[in-house]
Amino acid sequence: MSDIVEQTESVEENITAKLHLDPRLIEAVAEFEHEQWMAWARNIVDKEPGLSEERKERWRKLFVPYSELSEEMKDADREWARAVGKIFLMAVIGGVFAVSQEIPENIKS
User: Fold this and answer.
1) Which of 12, 90, 100, 103 is most buried, taking the most CB atoms under 10 A from its CB?
2) Is 80 exceeded by the pLDDT of residue 12?
3) Is the pTM of this model over 0.70?
4) At what angle do helices 3-18 and 71-89 cross, to 10 degrees?
């Protein structure tokens, strides 16, 4: 196993053990994850010839606001949100990734 992988796993274990991701943040990121998935899935449904009609229909039923999803479906988005949260915590706290001081022009407010 490479040093960076071992370091990343060690940092992740420490972060998971010591920090709790705020549920409000998880919920906000989960909602964003759902919006992102819908944009991707709509594109696939419209353009992918190999996608079965059964899958297209199953996905279309999920093209609803996050607030209207079942708890089971929200939990799937929350899992992605937790993964994103861990990545950011590792970057900021663990120092695994370099954090740029410069803000790109296209995202400045």
Assistant:
1) 90
2) no
3) no
4) 120
Q: Is 38 exposed, middle or buried (0-12, 13-18, 19+ CB in 10 A)?
A: middle
Q: What whole-number distance in Å separates Cα of residue 79 and Cα of residue 86?
A: 11
Q: Answer whether 62's CB lies under 8 Å from 38's CB.
A: yes
Residue 11 backbone phi and psi in degrees, to 5: -65, -45
Of 31, 45, 41, the C-alpha closest to 76 is: 31
What distance lies between CA 17 and its chain's CA centroid? 20
Separation between Cα atoms, residue 39 and residue 98, nearest integer Å: 30
**Distance (Å, whole) CA 17 – CA 84:** 17
| Nearest residue to 76 (alpha-carbon basis) of 85, 61, 66, 90 | 66
Six-digit token pair at 77?
């988005």
> Do the Cβ atoms of 31 and 66 come closer than 8 Å?
yes
Question: Distance (Å, rounded) from C-alpha 83 to C-alpha 95?
Answer: 17
